[in-house]
Amino acid sequence: MIKSVVIIGAGNLATQLALALTPKGIKVKQVFSRTLDPARELAQKVNACFTNELSCLMTNADLYIISVKDSAIQEVLQKLSLNKNCLIVHTAGSISMEVLSHYTNNYGVFYPLQTFSKSREVNFSEIPICIEANNSSSLLKLQELAETLSSSVQKVDSDQRKTLHLAAVFVNNFVNHLYVIGSEILQHKKLGFNLLKPLILETAHKVEALHPMEAQTGPARRNDQAVISDQLKMLQPYPEYQKIYNFMTNSIYPIYQKPNNDLL
Amino acid sequence: MIKSVVIIGAGNLATQLALALTPKGIKVKQVFSRTLDPARELAQKVNACFTNELSCLMTNADLYIISVKDSAIQEVLQKLSLNKNCLIVHTAGSISMEVLSHYTNNYGVFYPLQTFSKSREVNFSEIPICIEANNSSSLLKLQELAETLSSSVQKVDSDQRKTLHLAAVFVNNFVNHLYVIGSEILQHKKLGFNLLKPLILETAHKVEALHPMEAQTGPARRNDQAVISDQLKMLQPYPEYQKIYNFMTNSIYPIYQKPNNDLL
Question: What is the interface pTM, i.e. ipTM, of the complex?
Answer without folding.
Answer: 0.93
